[in-house]
Amino acid sequence: MSVDITERRWFERDAPDLAVDLLNKLLVTQIDGVRCAGRIIEVEAYTSDDPASHTFNGITDRNAVMFGRPAHLYVYLSYGIHSCANVVAGSDGDGQAVLLRALDPVDGIEAMTARRSGRRRQLANGPGKLCQAMGIGLKHGGLDLLGHDDDHGHHGHHGHGLADVAIVDDGVPPPGAPIIGPRIGISKAVEAPWRFRTPGAL
DNA sequence: GCCTGGATTGTCT
DNA sequence: GACAATCCAGGCA
Fold it and tell me: Is the CB of A95 under 7 A from strand C?
């Protein structure tokens, strides 16, 4: 009687808890006609009572998605250059999310290499690189990872029920003992141990 | 290899 | 007007 990853309830829990269970899941994109997949190997949790979170100071136009329903994609622009992708966690109105920090490329590696200007190594070992390699940009902010295209439905006109971005469970369980450490690149709540990583991944 | 600084723009004060 | 949940190139060892 467990909830599975194709149900929104699977995402409806506190970000640190969801973050650990996202490890070893596949992030799959179908963008520009190319399918790419990568195994999630590093994530960070952000909650609304967390000074480092974009939602700490309340709702704005930018972070509204993060305050919405779980299993949606929150994408923001970092340092004016890089897109970073998050999975909305918690309940509607919470303001929680999990930042996807690193992937182990699995499928569509040629396309990922091309998007990364021909670099063949270190394709997705960072939140900005991950988005670039997978083809995720600001325009994907707010999309439903479950492909239900619920709420406003004002982006794209597919109608086939498949999301451009999805998270898939291919049977590999999360690590029993994830590496836990402080989050990267933040200046507040620096010591909170909310970064999680699959052991043994490069 | 490690350290440094520059790029570049949306968002909030 | 300051700053940011980053990345890369270049310098030096």
Answer: no
